[in-house]
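Much of what follows relies on a compact textual record of a protein's fold. Each token is a code from a learned vocabulary of local backbone shapes. The record below shows the convention in full.
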Amino acid sequence: MRKSFQTLFNRRKQLLNNPEIKKLQEKVLNIRKNSIENKEELLKIATENFKNNDIDYYFAKDDNEANKIIFKIISEENNKTIDSVNKTRNESDNSENNIRVAKSKSNTLGEIATSKFLKSKNIEVIETDLGDRILQLKEYDNKPIHPTGPASHLNVRQIVEIINNTLKVNIEPNPKAIMETVKFDVLKKLANCEIGITGANAITSNEGSILLLHNEGNISLLSLMKTHIIVAGIDKIIPNLEDAMSLAKLESTYATGNLTTSYMNIISGPSKTADIEKKLLKNMYGARKIVVILLDNGRSRATPECLMCIGCGSCILSCPVYNVVGNEFGFNNYLGGRGVAMASFIEDNEMSFKSGLFMCTLCGLCTINCPVAMPTKEMIEKIRSDSQKQGFYPKSHKNIKDNIQKKGSPYD
């Protein structure tokens, strides 16, 4: 993991010293502040424009509601109930009776554990990002280690062992061979898949558009499926496409060390054409149906500072704690100190305590390396105080407290 992190750190080092990137940071900081301050108004405008763009829209107050909506859409789009599918299905059956959906990398979908939820409903989820697919095949202990490099903690020999064992192949520990093998397997499984599920990097209220960034091209495949389901937190809404481009460029710079990703998909409605006498015809090559699910899940009560994050993962590259304990420090797909902070709003202070609240050293390196200077240390200190008042603190703290009360000294 540390080797992967160092590679990324070196790749982006020169870019981060570019004066243009410094200007971009200031611009994005203002965009995020403005968006958070006006999130209710932006949400209202966005939902109106979704309707204008023929995009179906749902609002989900929490993870349970969001997953139920996804399940309902999948059931309806397959023109059969899950019960009827299960009656014709057995564990060894790989026929078309199985419901299969394709998914891209998404912190939001990880937050609400959509893959786990759908699996419990006998729906097969195919991860299409290479790193996520490797972790999915790993099956156990498959929590991602970085937002843009989920399998960065595995070396090539560990990965090839996973691939050989699960896909029943015998390839050498070569990155190219691994990529080709996983790609072939995923594309074969997508042949009878009609539903794609993705997150979103930004939602623009003025246009009712969705911005998706990716390098592998998989989101382009998913957006061409019959139904495209997009799940995004309400904090992803920003005013317009111009702002979205600025955010995308800064996120890509910090997350990958490149000014842009290979692909930027902007989706503003189902596929259509007007090439015959300018008469509008729907359902050309792309999705026939696009559904946006905007998720609250604690965001409406989160502090403005906690919602500033653009999801680049820069904070954990330099975190001394994360570089020792890895993803034990964080909550679901939200890693490091910011992930712990989000846990207190998504769940409660008990969950933030369990996610490593008292692991943080309060060194502030995360803020120094954050493109929008999130005050994570201050957030952690506040949550610690609230947590202690509720009785959630390490056992060692309790021992010190008891020693002071009984002996007048913190020492045994």
The chain is about 50% helix and 15% strand.
